[in-house]
Design a protein that fits this description.
alpha/beta; twelve-stranded mixed beta sheet; iron-sulfur
Length: 335
C-alpha cells in the first residue's frame, strides 16, 4: 500500500488546510443571488453524507494536515444535530478549528450548543440592515430572527463574528456607510463580498448588479479619510480595515476584481459528497460513491488527491459565465 502523504497539496504546491463542508442544500431563505424564489429540487436525503461519514472524511484529512473546517449550507442549522457534530469534529486530533456560516435565523436556538461544542468564530450572512429590504433580498420576512441570532451570539461571546454582505448595484450598495457605522458601535467584522456569477444569472444580469469592492472601499475612504489598513495573513481572502476608534473592522473580498488565488488553501465538500476544488469551476469529484463502496482511509486520501489535480491556478468567474454559467446554485455548492 502506498504510504500516506505528509500533506495534501495541489499541483501548484498549495497546501490544503481548510475544508468547507456543506451539511445540506436546504435553506429557510431564498436569497436572490443564491436560490430561485421557487427553490430548487433538494437532494434526496439518502444521497447526503451522514455525520458519521463526514467525521470519518475529516479525521482522515486531518491526519495529513487539514487544520480548519467551516460548516456551511444551504443553511447548516436546518439540519438537526449540528452542535453535536461540531463537538465530534473538535475532538479530532490535528484539527485546530471548526467554524460555521449561517443566516442567523436559527442561531438564537443553537448558539449556546455551538459554543459548548467548542465553536468560537461565526460568519453571518447579512446583506442589509433594513428590514423591508431584507425581505426583498431574502424573500422571507425573517430579519428580526436573524438579528436576534446575532445579538445572542454577541452576548455569548463568539469572536470574531463576521457579517458577510454581498453588494449589488441598485439593491444594497447604498448601505456601505451604514455597515461602516455598525463597526463603530459593535465588535463585528463586516465584510463586503463581490457578487459572483453563480446559478441562474445571465451575463447581462450579473453585469448590471456587479459592484467592484474598490467602489465600496472608495466610499469608506471618502467618509473616513483616516481609515486604517490592517495586516492580513497570507491565506486571507479579505483586505481588512478599521475606522479609527471603532470596535469592529471592515473587510473587502474581491473574487472578481482582486483575485486571491495564490494563497488558496481551500477545498469544498458538498452535502451530496462531491469534492469541489474551485468555486469558479463546474468540476466536481465524486467521493460519496467510493466511500459507500467501502473504500479505505488511504483511498479517501487518494480520491482527494485526484480531485486536487483539477484545482486551477486561478479562478475564472467571467470565463465560466461566458461558457454557460454554473451548473449549481450557490446553496447547492455550499456558501
Amino acid at each position: 500500500m502506498t504510504p500516506l502523504p505528509l500533506a495534501l497539496s495541489d499541483r501548484f504546491g498549495r497546501r490544503i488546510e481548510y475544508l468547507r463542508v456543506s451539511l445540506t442544500d436546504r435553506c429557510n431563505l431564498r436569497c436572490v443571488y443564491c436560490m430561485p424564489e421557487a427553490g430548487v429540487p433538494f437532494e434526496n436525503l439518502d444521497n447526503v453524507l451522514s455525520f458519521e461519514e463526514l467525521v470519518r472524511i475529516i479525521r482522515v484529512l486531518a491526519s495529513v494536515g487539514l487544520k480548519k473546517v467551516r460548516l456551511t449550507g444551504g443553511e447548516p442549522l436546518v439540519r438537526k444535530g449540528v452542535p453535536e457534530l461540531a463537538a465530534q469534529l473538535m475532538a479530532i486530533p490535528g484539527l485546530e478549528e471548526v467554524t460555521l456560516t449561517t443566516n442567523g435565523i436559527l442561531l438564537e436556538r443553537d448558539a449556546q450548543g455551538l459554543w459548548d461544542a467548542g465553536i468560537r468564530r461565526l460568519n453571518l450572512s447579512m446583506d442589509t440592515l433594513q428590514e423591508a429590504r431584507f425581505e426583498k433580498l431574502a424573500r422571507r420576512a425573517e430579519f428580526a430572527r436573524a438579528w436576534a441570532g446575532l445579538e445572542t451570539a454577541l452576548a455569548i461571546g463568539f469572536s470574531p463574528i463576521k457579517l458577510n454582505c454581498v453588494l449589488m448595484r441598485g439593491i444594497n450598495d447604498d448601505e456601505v456607510a451604514a455597515f461602516g457605522r455598525l463597526t463603530q458601535e459593535r465588535p463585528l467584522s463586516v465584510r463586503f463580498l463581490e457578487y459572483m456569477p453563480i446559478g441562474e444569472v445571465s451575463p447581462a444580469q450579473w453585469r448590471a448588479h456587479y459592484v467592484s469592492n474598490e467602489e465600496a472601499l472608495a466610499t469608506l475612504q471618502r467618509l473616513w479619510p483616516d481609515l486604517e489598513t490592517l495586516n492580513d495573513s497570507p491565506e486571507s481572502t479579505s483586505r481588512n480595515f478599521r475606522i479609527p476608534g471603532a470596535l469592529g473592522t471592515i473587510g473587502v473580498i474581491n473574487p472578481i476584481s482582486h483575485k486571491f488565488c495564490d494563497g488558496c488553501n481551500r477545498l469544498r465538500l458538498t452535502a451530496n459528497g462531491k469534492l469541489v476544488p474551485c468555486l469558479s469551476d463546474n468540476f466536481e469529484y465524486d467521493l460519496i460513491g467510493p466511500l459507500r463502496a467501502g473504500c479505505s482511509d488511504q483511498e479517501i486520501l487518494e480520491h482527494t488527491a485526484a480531485a486536487l489535480v483539477h484545482k486551477p491556478i486561478q479562478s475564472d468567474f467571467e470565463g465560466r459565465l461566458s461558457r454557460g454559467g454554473s451548473l449549481r446554485m450557490m446553496s447547492q455548492i455550499g456558501g
